[in-house]
Each structure stands twice: as structure tokens, then as C-alpha cells.
Design a protein that fits this description.
The protein is of the alpha/beta class and 251 residues long. The chain is built from 7 helices and 10 strands. It folds into 2 domains: 146 residues, Rossmann fold (3-Layer(aba) Sandwich), CATH 3.40.50; 93 residues, Dihydrodipicolinate Reductase, domain 2 (2-Layer Sandwich), CATH 3.30.360. Strands 2-1-3-4-5-10 form a 6-stranded parallel beta sheet, with helices on both faces. Strands 7-6-8-9 form a 4-stranded mixed beta sheet, covered by helices on one side.
Length: 251
């Protein structure tokens, strides 16, 4: 197992650490420390010495720290990244330029759950079915812990874009009813519904904990180290397609 450095010791970072250590326990013959976890730096930014010898950096901190964390990691020689933080879309062109300038590759996604990727495809199929019927109105509801800052979530934003793009009666995201709940400790729930006068149809995905996100992040890390990847940002969905092709779902 290659060494992974996680930047961010919040719930997601700790979940990735647990998943990586559990995998190491199942493969005790692998050499070297499999994972290191770093919280918020004591100074302005992380010490490059802390990033020496790292195969993959997992960015799981805060949106306003993504650029600075990637910059110090690139300066330290890191060339593979999984960006699991959300809310940094405005910095995407700068991040892309940084990666390409250093010959580095990163996998970035609003959600690394394998279930979320497949759920989004079910939603697109549902929109194809219900969209032409003007009796059904689509809606989207998402619920996360009260401390989550971005509203709507990155996953909800992606689902909303997919719904609007496929729905014949929605001209813009403003035409879709999107509700965000921030309460309690929910790790994440997303519900897409279609409501008519006499019936409602709902598709719901509920995360029980962050282990699903952590599993997907490790899948992305494995993909990065398996072969040389082109510099720049890579989406997660083609990696899921590759995983499904290698591990077909039993009938």
C-alpha cells in the first residue's frame, strides 16, 4: 500500500484514515506507514517536510485551504492528489493550472461515494421518464449536519444540474425547488422526488456514516498510483465505470 497523507482531521479525514488502516490490517505484509493524518497547520501553511515521501495527498480540509494545501504539497514534490473538499469551485481554474504546471494529477469530486455516482444516474433516468409529463413536478431535498458550511451541498448542486439539463420544462437551476437542511449530525441525505396531484415518487440516498466516502477516496487513490495519469483534474465517474467493469454486479 502506498503512503497516503490526509490533510484535514475532521470527520471525513478521520474516516479515510480509519479505512486506510483497516485495509493495512488486512494486508500486514505491505511496507511503510500506509497513512498519515494532519490537522490544521500551526503556522500559515503546512511544513513541506511533513509531506516528504508521500505517494498520494488526500485534501479533506476546508474550501479556503485547498489552494494553499495543494501549493505546499506541490512544492514538496507530491504529484498525486484526491480532492475531497467541497465549496472551492471558484478556485478550480487556478487549481487546474497549478497541477498542470507541476505535471501533477488529481481526482476531484463533490462526493466520492460509489452509491452517489450510481444514484445520480438513476436520477437522470427518472427525469427522462417523468420530465415529459407536465403533471409531475421535480424537487430536491438534502440534509447534512448543522456544521456543514456549503448550502446546497456539492452533491446536491451536481444532482440539480443533472435534473435541469435533462428536464424539458426547467430552463435554469432557479426553476428547480431545492431545499437544504442543516441540523443535527446527519452525514448526508439526498432525496429527489416527482410530485403529482395523486401520487409522489421519491428516490432517496442516505449515508449512514462517512465510510462510503472514504472507500471511494481510496479507490481514487489506487487509480492514481496504478498508472501514470495525465496532469490536471480528473473526474471520479470514469473510475467508477472502470471499477464496475472489473467487478460486475451479480444478478
Amino acid at each position: 500500500m502506498d503512503t497516503i497523507l490526509i490533510l484535514g482531521d475532521g470527520p471525513l479525514g478521520r474516516a479515510v484514515e480509519t479505512a486506510a488502516r483497516d485495509r493495512e490490517d488486512r494486508d500486514p505484509g505491505s511496507a511503510g506507514p500506509p497513512v498519515r493524518l494532519r490537522g490544521r497547520p500551526s503556522g500559515v501553511r503546512h511544513d513541506p517536510a511533513d509531506l516528504a515521501g508521500v505517494d498520494v495527498v488526500v485534501e479533506a480540509s476546508r474550501a479556503d485551504a485547498v489552494v494553499a494545501n495543494l501549493a505546499v504539497a506541490l512544492d514538496a514534490g507530491c504529484r498525486r492528489f484526491v480532492i475531497a473538499t467541497t465549496g472551492w469551485a471558484t478556485d478550480r481554474p487556478h487549481v487546474e493550472a497549478m497541477l498542470r504546471g507541476h505535471g501533477a494529477a488529481a481526482v476531484a469530486a463533490s462526493n466520492f461515494s460509489l452509491g452517489v455516482v450510481l444514484f445520480a444516474r438513476l436520477v437522470e433516468t427518472a427525469v427522462d421518464l417523468f420530465g415529459p409529463l407536465d403533471t409531475f413536478d421535480p424537487y430536491l431535498l438534502e440534509w447534512h449536519r448543522r456544521s456543514k458550511r456549503d448550502r446546497p451541498s456539492g452533491t446536491a448542486g451536481d444532482l440539480a444540474r443533472r435534473i435541469v439539463a435533462a428536464h424539458p420544462r426547467l430552463a435554469s437551476p432557479d426553476d428547480l425547488e431545492v431545499v437544504s437542511i442543516r441540523a443535527g449530525a446527519s452525514p448526508g441525505m439526498h432525496l429527489v422526488g416527482f410530485d403529482a396531484a395523486g401520487e409522489s415518487i421519491e428516490l432517496r440516498l442516505t449515508a449512514r456514516d462517512r465510510s462510503a466516502y472514504a472507500a471511494g477516496i481510496l479507490v481514487a487513490a489506487d487509480w492514481l498510483v496504478r498508472l501514470p495519469r495525465a496532469p490536471g483534474l480528473h473526474p471520479f465517474e470514469p473510475i467508477v465505470d472502470e471499477l464496475i467493469a472489473h467487478h460486475p454486479i451479480a444478478a
